[in-house]
TrEMBL record:
Superkingdom of origin: Bacteria
Keyword set includes Oxidoreductase: yes
Pathway(s) of this molecule: Alkene biosynthesis; ethylene biosynthesis via 2-oxoglutarate
UniProt-listed Enzyme Commission number(s): 1.13.12.19, 1.14.20.7
Pfam families, A to Z: 2OG-FeII_Oxy, DIOX_N
Keywords: Ethylene biosynthesis, Iron, Metal-binding, Oxidoreductase
Name the UniProt record assigns to this protein: 2-oxoglutarate-dependent ethylene/succinate-forming enzyme
Length: 321
């Protein structure tokens, strides 16, 4: 139980059903044992990753005042720049030593959900950098498609229709996040949390991490093990909504990021979350007499908002108004 599985998902892009089944089995096994795995053989090109990473570095190097022009704390729909210490993932530790950029599905001002002031709905807020907006919007769509391919493979083992997730991921509230972790400078501050220990909130997360390292995953014995960067892969993990959907058959596993020593770290998680009104309730195949549903039914939006309120002080303040 000391290293995460690496799964080649390229057969999901061919049409041999038996190869599809074999990938689905590997994913199922990893979701039950770990809730974490690496994927290789995915269609996101190295050139794309380099372009997005270059833009991320350009953005985070801007003066703070410039970045704060798209301050996430001034929105109600979770878009834009989060300065260092805006988020506190582990309530037992200081706020996270990281800065972030978040974007979602761009909805124009005349979209019915925006007119109705639905939470998490609205336009993206991009920085004014040449080439940024079309690149990030395209990358968001491609990451969404990759997430849905993995979810489709997961339906085989979960005993649900092949299009179960596709029908629920119309106009999703998925988030593409860029993260910069500033370095710590002494080994003695080894417990400095770039991202405090947490489980992810949503369905499935696909994470690109650069070469700096620092991501750790808690195994079933409670030990923190390294999830080192591996070229050409994404780290995939399940979030709490998937644990609830599957009645904990699939694990939502705690993880954290130790701040890099002397170097900057950049990462880009894509959090795949369904349409905000989606009911998150125990799947029929994940319950029986001995295993009744453990969690009450909730909706995607309700659940996400409660988790945001746990980790963002500004969100609690907004709700108090
Ligand atoms: O940056 C990383 O490697 C992980 C970030 C993470 O776990 C998160 O943002 O939920
Ligand atoms: Fe996470």
């Amino acid at each position: 139980m000391n290293s995460l599985p690496i799964i080649d998902i390229s057969p999901l892009y061919g049409d041999a059903p038996s190869a599809w089944q074999s990938v689905a089995n590997q994913i199922d096994q990893a979701c039950r044992q770990w809730g974490f795995f690496y994927i290789k053989g995915h269609p996101i090109s190295p050139a794309r990753i380099t372009q997005v990473l270059d833009q991320a570095q350009r953005f985070f190097r801007l003066p703070v005042a410039e970045k704060l022009k798209i301050d996430i704390t001034q929105t109600r729909h979770h878009r834009g720049y989060g300065a260092v210490a805006t988020e506190q993932l582990d309530p037992a530790k200081p706020s996270d030593l990281k800065e972030t950029f978040d974007m979602g599905l761009h909805l124009p001002a005349d979209h019915p959900d925006v007119l109705a002031h639905k939470p998490l709905r609205g336009p993206n807020r991009h920085p004014d950098l040449a080439g940024w907006e079309p690149l990030m919007e395209q990358h968001y769509r491609d990451m969404q498609a990759l997430a849905q391919t993995l979810l489709r493979a997961m339906t085989l083992a979960l005993g649900i229709e092949r299009d179960f997730f596709d029908t629920r991921f119309t106009e999703p509230v998925s988030v593409l996040r860029l993260i910069h972790y500033p370095p710590r400078h002494t080994a003695s501050s080894a417990e400095q949390q770039g991202a405090g220990a947490h489980t992810d909130y949503g369905c499935i997360t696909l994470l690109y991490q650069d070469a700096a390292g620092g991501l750790q995953v808690r195994n079933v014995n409670g030990q923190w093990i390294d999830a080192p960067p591996i070229d050409g892969t994404f780290v995939v993990n399940l979030g709490d909504m998937m644990a609830r959907w599957s009645n904990d058959r699939y694990l939502s596993t705690p993880h954290r990021v130790i701040s890099p020593l002397g170097v900057d770290r950049y990462s880009m998680p894509f959090f795949a979350e369904p349409h905000p009104d989606t009911l998150i309730q125990c799947l029929p195949g994940c319950q029986d007499e001995g295993h009744p549903p453990k969690y009450p039914t909730t909706t995607c939006a309700e659940f996400l908002l409660s988790r945001f309120a746990d980790t963002y002080a500004y969100r609690r303040e907004q709700q108090a108004v």
